[in-house]
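Thread: quick sanity check before group meeting

JM: Hey all, I'm pulling together slides for Thursday and realized we never actually wrote out the predicted structure for the chain we discussed last week. Dropping the sequence here so it's in one place. If anyone has concerns about the input, flag it before I start.
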Amino acid sequence: MTTTIARPAEAPPAAARPKRQREGAAWVFLSPWVLGAIGLTLLPMAVSLYLSFTDYDLFNPPHWVGLRNYTQMFTEDPRYWRSVVTTLTYVVIAVPLQLALALAVALALKSMRRGRAFYRSAFYAPSLLGASMSIALVWRAIFNDGGTVDNLLGTGGWVNKPGWSLLAVALLTVWQFGAPMVIFLAGLQQIPGELYEAAAVDGASRWRQFVSITVPMLSPVLFFNLVLQTIQAFQVFTPAFAISAGKGGPADSTLVYTMYLYDRGFVASHMGYASAMAWVLLVVIGVVTAVLFRTSRAWVFYASEGER
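JM (edit): ok, ran it. Output follows.
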């Protein structure tokens, strides 16, 4: 007498499962992100948008004032416009210098035969440390009266000079060139070496190879870094706060936009006004990003014309 052992039924393949069941599993895995996006991003943004139309001091219930915060911002607050000019000046100084230094170092690392991994890590380290308050305080000591820069150049401390203090803040950002440098290095390694060999055979100099081959082939990476670093520059806070001791001085020369927003919201307790400033900053960053994308059609080169 033979005994037949029944095999367990095999699970149906994923394609045979009901669509609703597959979607339910997907939402289970996505739920932490969805809850975080709603609770930590969308809901606070909605509350901030509402507060931007109110007079709210953090202690009493918000009082609806309509567009008064916005009209006061644009027509009655000279410090607001000083913060706008300071931020734009900072962006114009810091972003090009940072990208130029990052590209120069990436080109140097690409041509290295030994120690590339070590130097890549060493140059990337400031990007991990530079955003901390401790490094910003050290930077303030370097550029203060009697600091390293004063002892070497004899020009006095930059921190206490209105014409130089913002440059000290920008140089701290430039020093954090590691992240765009790594992206540039990855882009340079994707450029075919045959292009440089053909250019060298035709007698092209190093500068001509850089202008005619490196820059066009690297333009998508350059555009990516430009957009990313511009957005970050508009939101600069920690370096300016630490170097100016939280006052934006001297003579409001380091009063960047986010620092003035912090002052209005948490020092002066005008949270409605600060919320209005935050939304104006969001709109400005969106407009600047859209302009960069629009102008990229004229100078960003893609291998496939269909991707342009």
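AS: nice. The longest helix spans residues 19-51. The mean pLDDT is 85.
JM: adding both to the slides.
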